[in-house]
UniProtKB/TrEMBL annotation:
Organism from which the protein derives: Elsinoe australis
Keyword vocabulary terms for this entry: ATP-binding, Nucleotide-binding, Stress response
UniProt name for this protein: Heat shock protein 12B
Lineage of the species this protein comes from: Eukaryota, Fungi, Dikarya, Ascomycota, Pezizomycotina
Pfam families: HSP70
InterPro entries according to UniProt: ATPase_NBD, Hsp_70_fam
Length: 418
């Protein structure tokens, strides 16, 4: 007798640091990765779709108070908490997602079919941040049926599921590096069984705030130094589209095409010309005819500190895995930043330096949306695909502490023999 397929729609939300995304699938269609629908047409996307996450809305004025120094005061003035802000965002995200789901299925089908929500968050978020996310989801009437998934775990589910058809054996060990916009997270798994697909965590995951957004910060610092602080602040306030245009070009072209080691790179000799409309020609600032010139060396100066931090995380994760007696076979690079050819090449070079056996490195097919797809697959499985994890923290109870006058009862005081 054929097992009855679950009647529900899995909806996954990837709440990233710099971008967010939504994907869904009807469970009755089975666990085929090709049937997963990733929402690609977003407001502000100008009908340009890709396998990326929700794009930023271009031309939106950048508020002066949007920095940590003034943010708390502004939230207090508006009567909003951080949880309220995230809830407002989730409401908009959920409303748009439901509209897209209703296009895929009939409204009656959507109304009568249970929805199961899965949320993913960066692995380095604290427990308090995760609890706050769940509170925001509750306010947005998004009932989370399973615990929050860490982004690298969700990405690992998708990447390792895709590798199942390749020459993979039980006992093989893989490091998954989820290089996103705000954070880079690494996690190492061993294939326990291939049918059904199950894997276990080998060593505790690691991560850091060295995602692609750090490149934007470096670019901003370079431009601020070129223009001078006063001119830069003036441009940001009086000509916000000038900076928005420059940053958009840096995002879409410089970050994605910079790879001086590539033989076919058209930017090797001339560097990059970043549109900077509305700013007068300035030899000192390197601006001519509305373009700001960036040399290869300058772009490398933006990339290298960030990439070096990622390489340190990779080395630490691989070394920890080897110390635990599990030598990784391969590193799988996922996430938006994971599509950078420069990062990819640098990681391959580092892996060759760590291990003379040349541990391989591959880029996931759906690098941008691996996290979303993995979250949906986790929901489709209806059970944990990861059989065991390594504890990040330990809880203890103080059994003996130093006596403090006024805090402790004198009758409980005793001398320690240690």
């Amino acid at each position: 007798m054929e097992k009855t397929k679950p009647d529900k729609i899995i909806v996954a939300f990837d709440l990233g640091t710099s971008h967010s995304g939504v994907a869904f699938q009807y469970a009755g269609n089975g666990g085929d990765d090709d049937r997963i629908t990733v929402i690609k047409s977003w407001p502000g996307g100008h009908n340009l779709t890709s396998d990326e996450q929700a794009p930023p809305v271009k031309g939106t004025p950048f508020p002066d108070w949007l920095d940590e120094k003034h943010l708390k005061a502004e939230l207090k003035k508006r009567g909003k908490s951080g949880v309220d802000i995230v809830a407002d965002f989730l409401i908009k995200l959920h409303t748009f997602a439901m509209g897209e789901i209703s296009k895929k299925f009939s409204p009656v089908f959507v109304e009568t079919t249970p929805l199961e929500y899965i949320l993913t968050v960066p692995a380095i978020w604290s427990d308090s941040a995760k609890r706050a996310t769940l509170r925001a989801a509750e306010i947005a009437v998004i009932v989370v049926d399973v615990p929050l998934l860490s982004e690298p775990e969700a990405a690992a589910v998708e990447a390792l599921s895709a590798m199942k058809a390749e020459n993979v054996q039980e006992g093989d060990v893989f490091v998954v590096c989820d290089a996103g916009g705000g954070t880079v997270d690494l996690i190492t798994y061993e294939f326990e069984t291939l049918t059904p697909l199950r894997f276990r965590e080998v060593v505790p995951g690691s991560g850091g705030s060295c995602g692609a957004y750090s490149l934007n910060v470096g670019f901003e610092e370079l431009v601020r130094k070129r223009l001078g602080l006063l001119n830069f602040c003036k441009i940001r306030r009086q000509q916000p589209k000038t900076w928005a245009t420059a940053l958009q070009y840096f995002e879409q072209y410089v970050k994605r095409n910079f790879n001086p080691a590539h033989e076919d790179s058209e930017y090797d000799d001339c560097g990059f010309s970043v549109p900077f409309p509305g700013f007068p020609d300035s030899e000192k600032a390197g601006i001519s005819f509305g373009f700001l010139s960036l040399s290869q060396e300058e772009v490398a100066g933006i990339f290298n500190p960030v990439v070096d931090e990622v390489l340190g995380l990779v080395k630490g994760q691989v070394s920890a895995s080897k110390a635990a007696g599990h030598t990784p076979n391969c590193l799988i690079l996922v996430g938006g930043f994971g599509q950078s050819e420069y990062l990819f090449d640098r990681i391959k070079q580092r892996l060759n330096g760590i291990d003379n056996n040349a541990m391989s490195c591959i880029q996931a097919i759906h690098a941008w949306t691996a996290c979303l797809r993995g979250a949906v697959l986790r929901g489709m499985a209806g059970m944990e695909l990861v059989t065991s994890r390594k504890a990040r923290l330990h809880h203890g109870v103080i059994c003996c502490e130093r006596f403090v006058e006024g805090k402790h009862d004198p009758k409980d005081k005793s001398w320690s023999k240690l």
